[in-house]
Amino acid sequence: MSKKHRGGMHEDHADESWLIPYCDLLTLLLALFVTLYAASNIDKDKLEAIAQSMQNQILSGASITYMPGISPGNPMPQPDAEDDGSAEEEMESLRALEEALQQYLVANGLETVVTTSIDDRGLVISMNDAVLFDPGIAEIKSEYRDVLVRIGQRINELKNYIRVEGHTDSVPSNTQVYPTNWELSGGRAASVVRLFIDQARIDPQKIGYMGYGEYRPIADNATPEGRSKNRRVDVIILNSQYNALEQQRTDDGGNEP
User: pLDDT 10s per residue in the chain (257 long)?
Assistant: First the structure.
């Protein structure tokens, strides 16, 4: 009887063999969490630096680029911007030319006929075409040809490209030769270019002209004073940005069959 009783108790005991793999699983999970925690502590400073760098880049609107061996604490050297020294030298040359022209204009009483300024295109020499030309005519008055030649000789000292722009007021041109202000403004600009090439010896490859008619006014065409300001020929000594574009156009034209 006692043996049966002991045997019955052994059969009723629960099977606990599953505890071994369960404990192994818990041990593995614990080891994994410890490893992850250790790794996060090791890279904490680096992760904070990367996060700060990304935030700064986003706020500045710049793109983020990482390369092998480059870290946020040791960023990749950025390429230099356009050579500030060359740009400053160019600006100094344009200012020097403007000053020399101003002295010449004042000495010859032409400061009200020819004005100078510097804008994003370069040095602008603006000439009142009401003085240079008779109404409806694109031929330069003889008394101002020498003045323009002197100006052309001075600007020819620089290697910059030159663009001559013709402008009119809003009064229509209706002559047989110049039926619209487009032709009249372009013809006057072309006359200046031709004089610069023939008399001032400016290289034809570095000069060109455009006619804008009445469509780029600088004053109100409703008044005589405004119309007088709008009738002008602008000679522009282009800065390096426009020089590069003009050089590309010259090279492309020279490569055509």
Answer: 445 555 445 555 556 665 566 666 777 777 676 666 666 555 556 556 555 554 554 444 443 333 334 344 444 444 444 555 688 888 899 999 999 999 999 999 999 899 999 999 999 999 998 889 998 999 999 999 999 999 999 999 998 999 999 999 999 998 999 999 999 999 999 999 999 999 999 999 999 999 999 999 999 999 999 999 999 999 999 998 876 666 666 566 544 43
Distance of CA 186 to the CA centre of its chain: 28
Q: CB-side exposure of 9: number of CA atoms within 13 Å?
A: 5
Give Cα 128 distance to the centre of its chain.
Answer: 30
Q: Is the pTM of this model over 0.85?
A: no
The DSSP annotation for 138-195 comes to: -SPPHHHHHHHHHHHHHHTTS-S-EEEEEE--SSPP--SS-SSHHHHHHHHHHHHHHH
CATH 3.30.1330.60 residue ranges of the chain are: 84-254
Q: Please answer whether residues 168 and 231 qualify as being in contact, where contact means their C-beta atoms are separated by less than 8 angstroms.
A: yes
What CATH number has the domain spanning 84-254?
A: 3.30.1330.60
Q: φ, ψ for residue 68 (rounded to 5)? A: -55, 130
